[in-house]
Amino acid sequence: MKQNKVHQFAAGELKRLLNGRNDSLIRLSSGDDAEDGFLVKTGKGDGIEIHGNNSRSLLFGVYAYLKRFAGCRWFHPGEEIVGSGKILRSRLRTPWVEKPAIPRRYIFPEDKVFTLSLMQKFIEWAPRNMISDITISFNAWEEWRANLVPEI
């Protein structure tokens, strides 16, 4: 399967947040389903497989795995708590399937209190917390578009 940019980013996040350890034991894949959802299961040997219904769901699955099994947390935009960097395979005894009850999960930050820097942090924070969309006002988009497009 040819990897798209989201798939490559998800792999990079695994490597970064696991401190380069054990990331080769995790196999990533994604489909092209429009609905979000992911599956995490034990793979061959000591490996773990994370499959997303689509590339966005794959990224959600990677972050959910890192939260649940490696101790990573993202409580606020710009704040990152990195876990142990170890794969805790023994804690995954049965496949873990997740499909959100609400198809689109979005936030609408008030642009009067947001700066461009804070919005960029929200763009990083949102998928780490399974937020699928960020909606901003037309005026904010016009002002920040050139700086936000590379982040998206």
Tell me what the structure shows.
This protein has 152 residues and is an alpha/beta fold. The chain has helices at 5-17, 55-70, 116-128, 138-148, and strands at 26-30, 38-42, 48-52, 96-98, 106-107, 133-134. It is built from 4 helices and 6 strands; from the N terminus they run αβββαββαβα. β2 and β3 form a beta hairpin. It has a 4-stranded mixed β-sheet with strand order 1-3-2-4, with helices on one face. A two-stranded parallel sheet has the order 5-6.
Low-confidence stretches: none
Output the structural class. alpha/beta
Oligomeric state of this protein = single chain
SSE string, helices as H and strands as E: HEEEHEEHEH
Radius of gyration: 16 Å
| Outline | globular
The total beta strand count reads: 6
What is this structure, in a nutshell?
It is built from 4 helices and 6 strands, in the order H-E-E-E-H-E-E-H-E-H.
List the helices and strands and how they pair.
Blueprint: H1 5-17, E1 26-30, E2 38-42, E3 48-52, H2 55-70, E4 96-98, E5 106-107, H3 116-128, E6 133-134, H4 138-148
Parallel strand pairs: 1-3, 5-6
Antiparallel strand pairs: 2-3, 2-4
Helix pairs in contact: 1-2
Structure characteristics:
4-stranded mixed beta sheet; 152 residues; globular; alpha/beta; two-stranded parallel sheet
